[in-house]
Amino acid sequence: MAVLSYRSRSEVIEQLQADTFDLVIIGGGITGAGLAVQAAASGMKTALLEMQDFSEGTSSRSTKLVHGGLRYLKQFDVEVVSETVQERAVVQGIAPHIPKPDPMLLPLYDEPGASFSQLELKVAMDLYDRLAGVEETDFANKLLSREEVIERQPNLAKENLIGGGFYLDYRNNDARLVIENIKQAHEDGAAVLSRAKVTGFEYDNQQRIQSVIVKDMLNQESFKVKSQLVINATGPWSDTIRALDTEVESTPQMRPTKGVHLVVDSKKLPVNSPIYFDSGEGDKRMVFVLPRETKTYFGTTDTDYDGDLKHPQVSLHDVEYLLEIVNRRFPEAKITIDDIEASWAGLRPLISGNSGSDYNGGHNGALSDESFDELALLFTEYNEGRVPRVEVEKGIRDANRNNAESGNDPSAISRGSDLSVSETGLLTLAGGKITDYRKMAEGAMKVIIDTLNKKTDKEFTLIDSKAYQVSGGHFDKTRVDESIQEFAKLYEEAGLNSEEADYLANLYGSNAERVLQYLDQAKEYADKLSLPVKDAISLLYAIHEEANLTSEDFFLRRTNYMLFRSDEMHSLVEPVQAIITEELGLSSEESERQAQELEESMSEHALKDLK
């Protein structure tokens, strides 16, 4: 099988043209990547096509959490939170080198529009811990007094602060999660191709889709890929792909919203843990402030979006909104636009009729004060052993029913995914969030397998995707820290220092030995071009085994340099482009074009035009 490199691109295209596939997946974000893993592991002849770099469209632009959904417990959407925290644990198990526990502080302020009172927060956190199975562990929640919140985070605003909570959440590396799924699918036999745009379909004499028409975005040439089934997993582009299905009429179903995040140096805004708080604007939004490496980033906005899906941008209004909130909560920070080192904007692929996103926006479906007080009393009585669990469950059902009857169905907020099938056989898997990607894929795979087993003489069986680890994650999920230390030791024994070894071990997990195959060549480049060995080896691995084509691919999606190490990045720009040019045999014109694109991307992420 060809390696996952642009050196083998022509071989992949030949394979795509020559074979008839069981399943073609359109979209190389987290949804498509999750589908590809399960399809390829189930023995399907699988193809995945992505019009940009893998994860470039949406899945590299999230808040970078595997979020547990504590907010949903304000409306007692227990089923959704239960599914979310269970699925979070599954994702941590199948990619144990990526999601990491990172408990979150939630300060409470006595102000209009507050999401939680102290009682509400305690009830929500206790239920959250029970659903997540962490009640008797080091990750169990803590209800904090005002003084304890200040002790944990002294630079928080003191005015109207009444207390807070501390509960389990997980940080994530979204683009790495995508590429590790893509690599696993590739290792299991899937033909995966980025920068390949689906532009149309061909039909058989029953008006069923029999092939997709693809444009190679590098040379603008088109080709066809035959397939028994096609699934559209393009997130915000779902309606665009459905519109290409010309044999049926489709009604737009997506309602994308834009989220924005801004990055400053941690010296400007030091935080000791992730923090999640009400905006204070009375708009029912909550904002994250999160430490990452030597930086602090914060967001998110949540505004309806009808612009260019490929290129959402941070506006001055976005910046002013977030700075107003963060400076209010951290009055000593006095952050200005000139302090922003990096930023990103991304789209959430919401489905029309959904009242809000993962985190914020829209009507939050909150229960009435009366309903909440009744449920809080039930939980108190249950914890004291005075009422049985069945009474609590009945109370939750009744409250949700009353809420739905009032037009505030909480399930419309949090259950955000949808699987549909057109008359031509095109499947569309839309909506959802990163935490749910595996479960969404599993649901779609049940339909796909049933359809293919009836349509062909093959017999496919669904894999146990809860236990199917992805590339880099093939180690004991109960020994994450110890395993990462063992991988780091391999790098140290090869001559890297401890800091470099830790960086690579956390980035690549169980792929350490594969990464180290490039060490000798990396040392040569490091000496010749004056860059650290860890960056040279990381780049070589990305080029030859992670379909890295451009400097932007490397700095923004194979690593987080452009977002969280921008001050280190400048000295790497020229040597990285030189290595890419040499390893992929780029023309001087193509190399210069990539360098120019990187410069434009760096400028945009640093908000130079707004500044």
Automatic annotation (TrEMBL):
InterPro entries: DAO_C, DAO_C_sf, FAD-dep_OxRdtase, FAD/NAD-bd_sf, G3P_DH_FAD-dep. GO terms for biological process: glycerol metabolic process; glycerol-3-phosphate catabolic process. It catalyses: sn-glycerol 3-phosphate + O2 = dihydroxyacetone phosphate + H2O2. Pfam families: DAO, DAO_C. It is an enzyme of class 1 (oxidoreductase). Its EC number is 1.1.3.21. One of its GO terms (molecular function) is glycerol-3-phosphate dehydrogenase (quinone) activity. Residues 401-411 have a biased composition (Polar residues). Residues 22-353 form the FAD dependent oxidoreductase domain. Residues 590-611 have a biased composition (Basic and acidic residues). Residues 467-590 form the Alpha-glycerophosphate oxidase C-terminal domain. Residues 398-417, 587-611 are annotated as: Disordered. Its cofactor is FAD. The keyword Flavoprotein applies. The keyword Oxidoreductase applies. Keywords: FAD, Flavoprotein, Glycerol metabolism, Oxidoreductase. Belongs to the FAD-dependent glycerol-3-phosphate dehydrogenase family. This is Alpha-glycerophosphate oxidase. It comes from Ruoffia halotolerans.
